[in-house]
Recover the amino acids of this structure.
């Protein structure tokens, strides 16, 4: 397989060993790694986001890790723009770009393009969310069909998140989300990508998550959250959603003990891994689903 013209995408649920595998791939094929995880962009959150170790970043060139302040918002559109530039730079150096992370929307945007919908004010969006909460998903979906018949059979009636998004887009822009999707620019040919998804058996993944949580505390997760809290980050910022911040925050206030803190982080991380797996099932059907035991044989095939 000629890899010179390819872009390698490596994904999988949290704690599935994506970063280590990407490192092995990069060493073998003369590649450079680009972060595709929405939480690993934050400068002040190294431990809780499981950012690759500094020693590994020295071995192989890594891009877009720990460069963004937790006080600033960071969108998929911003990531996409930066990533396209990095891909071009890496290819100019005659190396192979390897995108690795667990953010499905990032991979979707690079492989399928990003819908350039105008920014909708938060107040406007909150009104739509409150409406959905007040009348319930069933009635809300019926309202959505009335104002935007184009989405019928395009969005599952039980999918509250997508229904709300479609409703707010139609109300604010006067155009259906379907019309916006039609304007999406495809940036790369689908044949440009080699897509690898590390498909960990659930029981094994749960064990790995437990080990990761314990390791985070040994590495200084409590100190990291203490420093983060001093920065007074606004509630609506994405960085506040990093798993562990709220839980360790409660521990620091004396509301829960250390074991309860670890257990809550473990449960939340497990739930997050499940959501990632569900996303992959629905949105990553074209990806090679690789059992962790087969990663070495997959590596051998990359030449």
């Amino acid at each position: 397989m000629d890899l010179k013209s390819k872009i390698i995408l490596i994904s999988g649920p949290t704690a599935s060993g994506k970063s280590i595998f990407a490192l092995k791939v990069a060493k073998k094929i003369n590649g450079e790694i680009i972060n595709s995880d929405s939480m690993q962009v934050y400068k002040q959150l190294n431990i809780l986001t499981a950012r690759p170790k500094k020693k590994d970043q020295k071995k192989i060139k890594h891009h877009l890790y720990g460069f963004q302040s937790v006080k600033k918002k960071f969108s998929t559109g911003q990531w996409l723009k930066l990533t396209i530039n990095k891909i071009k730079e890496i290819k100019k150096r005659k190396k192979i770009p390897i995108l690795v992370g667990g953010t499905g929307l990032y991979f979707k945007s690079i492989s399928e393009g990003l819908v350039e919908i105008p920014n909708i004010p938060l107040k406007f969006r909150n009104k739509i969310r409150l409406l959905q909460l007040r009348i319930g998903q069933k009635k809300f979906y019926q309202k959505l069909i009335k104002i935007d018949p184009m989405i019928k059979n395009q969005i599952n009636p039980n999918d509250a998140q997508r229904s709300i998004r479609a409703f707010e887009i139609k109300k604010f822009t006067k155009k259906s989300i379907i019309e916006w999707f039609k304007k999406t620019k495809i940036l790369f040919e689908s044949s440009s990508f080699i897509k690898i998804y590390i498909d960990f058996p659930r029981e094994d993944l749960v064990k790995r998550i437990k080990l990761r949580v314990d390791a985070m505390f040994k590495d200084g997760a409590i100190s990291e959250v203490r420093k983060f809290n001093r920065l007074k980050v606004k509630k609506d910022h994405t960085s506040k959603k990093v798993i562990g911040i709220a839980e360790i925050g409660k521990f620091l206030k004396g509301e829960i003990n250390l074991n309860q803190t670890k257990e809550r982080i473990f449960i939340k991380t497990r739930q997050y891994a499940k959501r990632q797996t569900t996303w992959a099932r629905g949105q990553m059907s074209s990806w090679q689903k690789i059992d962790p035991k087969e990663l070495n044989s997959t590596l051998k095939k990359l030449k």
Observations:
- The longest helix spans residues 122-147.
- The chain has three domains: 7-115+186-200+284-301, 122-182, 203-277.
- Strands lie at 7-11, 31-35, 62-63, 96-100, 193-198, 288-290.
- The mean pLDDT is 93.
